[in-house]
Amino acid sequence: MPNSSSTRSAFACLAFSIVVYSISLLAPAGALAATTTADLRVVNTAGTTLAEQSQVTGDVTITTDPAAQCFGPPGGSGNNVNVPGPSALGIVKDASESTADLRPLSVTDQFSFGLGVCGFGGYTFTQNDTSFWYLKVNHVGAQVGGDQYILNAGDDVLWYLSPTFSPLPNELELLAPTVAQRGEPFTVRVRSYDDSGQVSPVAGALVTGAEQSTGGNGTTTVRLTQSASLQALHGADIPSNRPIVCVRSSQGGCGTAGTPRHKIIGTNGPDRIRGTQMPDLVRARGGRDHINTRGGLSDIVNCGRARDKAIVGPSDITRRCEKVIRKG
User: Fold this and answer.
1) Which value, in Å, is the radius of gyration of the alpha carbons in the chain?
2) In this structure, are residues 162 and 132 in contact, taking their beta carbons and an 8 Å threshold?
3) By three-state DSSP, how is residue 100 classified?
4) Cis amide prior to 279 (ω within 30 degrees)
5) Cα 223 from chain centroid (whole Å)
6) Cβ 102 vs Cβ 50: under 8 Å
7) DSSP state letters, 155-184
8) Closest C-alpha to 167, from 265, 235, 67, 104
9) Per-residue pLDDT of the chain (328 residues; tens, 9 = 90+)
10) Are 207 and 221 in contact (CB under 8 A)?
11) Dihedral of the alpha carbons of 71, 139, 43, 261, in degrees to the nearest 10
12) Burial 2-37 (b: 16+ CB within 10 A, else e)
């Protein structure tokens, strides 16, 4: 997207001096931090969701990219940089290990005071663009770089390739029930968050499966004949999350084969993973993991490598789990 060099330079200087959004300060390496699980969503400018999952994250190492010249040459050094975690940048690195759409990560260490995020999944920007990777945590624009933002369990992390830095787009959130009856109407709600986290209902949003757009209170009615992921769209706003609604028939069947599943992804180290109320797909990966998906809907649990323990519900499916405890 074209822009004058003076405007871009002014933005770059501002971003560098106060360290916001895509610019990250280097932090000294420390001892291995405990991992935590947060919710990650990465969306490009076209509104395509590159990743949406619960991700376990901790300390990571990122290889900087010599081609990362979004802030001008020379780009990254190609060296490995330790990012102590769990952090809002580290969670993308951990997610990229199992989510191909996030690769490659393009990060530069060309500045003595910090890392710059140029791209995820091949989606980047140039020095003359107004675009940048916008970071929000818990619906609020981050005031420090991604590697400086330390996450707590359950945090909601959004990276969006914003086409502009002024005005910043609002973020949509879609609230929907986890379970619905086949063919029966249910209510969903669409809300909008500005950069400060101020929330308001959204009128005129389009929601998957809804016959009408949302009204003034941000709600509309949806009917489904099968389980589905829903999403809300509204103009230039950042597309919403994609909650899963599990549709029950008169015979039940919610969470059976073919149902969309919420992804929960571990690391290659020892993780503690807890399921959600949605039908989950757990991929624990490496390490001696402890997994608990008891309760909620039918889940699929892949414990991965090493000796793992899984506490699961009666209808959960387990794979590669050395110790399985089933509880009602």
Assistant:
1) 21
2) yes
3) helix
4) no
5) 27
6) yes
7) -EEEEEEES-SSSPPPEEEEE--SEEETT-
8) 235
9) 333 333 333 333 333 333 333 443 333 333 344 899 999 999 999 999 999 999 999 999 999 999 999 999 999 999 999 999 999 999 999 999 999 999 999 999 998 777 889 999 999 999 888 999 999 999 999 999 998 899 999 999 999 999 999 999 999 999 999 999 999 999 999 999 999 999 999 999 999 999 999 999 999 999 999 999 999 999 999 999 999 999 987 666 676 667 899 999 999 999 999 999 999 999 999 999 999 999 889 999 999 999 999 999 999 999 999 999 998 7
10) no
11) 150
12) ebeeeebeeebeebeeebbbbbbebbeeeeeeebbb
C-beta atoms surrounding 254 within 10 Å: 20
Q: Of how many residues is the chain composed? A: 328
> Strand, helix or coil at 118?
strand
At 247, the amino acid letter reads V
The closest of 60, 49, 66 to 27, measured between CA atoms, is: 60
Q: How far is CA 141 from CA 32, 70, 195, 319, in A?
A: 27, 21, 5, 39
Q: Give backbone dihedrals phi and psi of 171, rounded to 5 degrees, phi first.
A: -105, 130
CA atoms within 13 A on the CB side of 83: 32
Single-letter amino acid code for the residue at 312: V
Whole-prediction pTM: 0.89
Structure tokens at 199: 């929330």
Q: Is 190 helix (H, G, I), strand (E, B) or coil?
A: strand
The Cα–Cα gap between 254 and 232 comes to 23
In sequence order, the 6+-apart residues with CB closer than 8 A to the CB of 115 are 23, 24, 25, 26, 62, 64, 81, 83, 89, 107, 108, 109, 145, 147
